Amino acid sequence: MKYFFDTYALFEIYRKNTSYGKFLGEEIVTSSLNLGEFYYGFLKEGKKKSGLEWFNRLSGMAIRESAETVRKAMEFRHKNRGSKFSYIDCIGYILAREQKLLFLTGDGQFRGVPGVEFVK
Length: 120
Known about the structure:
Elements: E1 3-5, H1 7-14, E2 30-31, H2 32-44, H3 48-58, E3 62-63, H4 67-79, H5 87-98, E4 102-105, E5 116-118
Parallel strand pairs: 1-4, 2-3, 4-5
Helix pairs in contact: 1-2, 2-3, 4-5
């Protein structure tokens, strides 16, 4: 099975979380928004150089979301408004579903959601 790497998963791989070791050989697929969020996380930590290295390394693996994907994501977010899903998480999740990929994350909001590979 192929995976869509959420920002959470990307950071866990960067941090060498052994729980994500089995995904190291997988082709990384993420969205341009997740890639931006990932880069922003590096900036917040004062690690611009590392962030740029990872951004450049992963930029060819980022897929773009369509307006239709964004619409569906906002419907998903509205339907689950009791949860605290972010816009980017919702877009990534719907994009993964459209691409027939498992959404790889350790974000607790996604525990038990169909189509999610939850790894802590």
